[in-house]
Amino acid sequence: MSRARPLHPAVAIALGGLVAGSLDILYAMAFWWLKAGVGPLRILQSVAAGALGRASFDGGAASATLGLVLHFAIATAMAAAYVLAARRVPLLLRRPWLCGAAYGLLLYAAMNLVVVPLSAAGAQPRDPLWVACSIVAHMLLVGVPIALFARRASTGSADQPVRVEIHGS
What is the distance between the alpha carbons of residues 155 and 16, in angstroms, rounded to a whole number? Predict the structure, then answer.
């Protein structure tokens, strides 16, 4: 069985951000469509509300596009942070399922307890089902894919033992 070539770290970051961001936004869209009939445009506008506040919901496709761009920028930054941290903390690469899930939980807490309340969107009322499902979704759909792509950047496979060499300081 041949091993895949390791991904360049920039590729792992881009793919981690793309996959985690896609799974996360699709989860949010599916949840709110099923629960309340809320369409994708409104979900993306709610992301843009972090920058634009309530005016986002009057911005049509333009504010939805901004929300989409912001969402993927944030997901890519989350992937970059993990890939860079994993270069210094080999455990993050050895245990991508466990560490990725923990990272997803940390991301959920940071976004919902710090970032969103401090944004133009401000603190939002919380639906208990949304919160519970979102915690699990961040663990499995955001943190784990990011960790698996980080591992591919160092080993070429999520199934192989990891040996990380760090050169320089």
Answer: 15
Structural domain total, the chain: 1
Provide the whole-model pTM.
Answer: 0.89
Distances (CA, A) of 56 to 22, 37, 61, 115, 120: 21, 19, 10, 17, 10
Entry field: residues in the chain? 169
Model pLDDT for residues 117-127, shown as the tens digit of each residue:
999 998 887 89
- Rounded CA-CA distance 41/50 in Å is 15
Whether residue 17 is predicted with pLDDT greater than 90 in this model: the reply is yes
Give the domain range for residue 109. 9-155
- Work out the angle between the directed axes of helices 60-88 and 9-36 (0-180°, nearest 10): 130
Tokens representing 110? 């940071």
Q: Is residue 166 part of a domain?
A: no
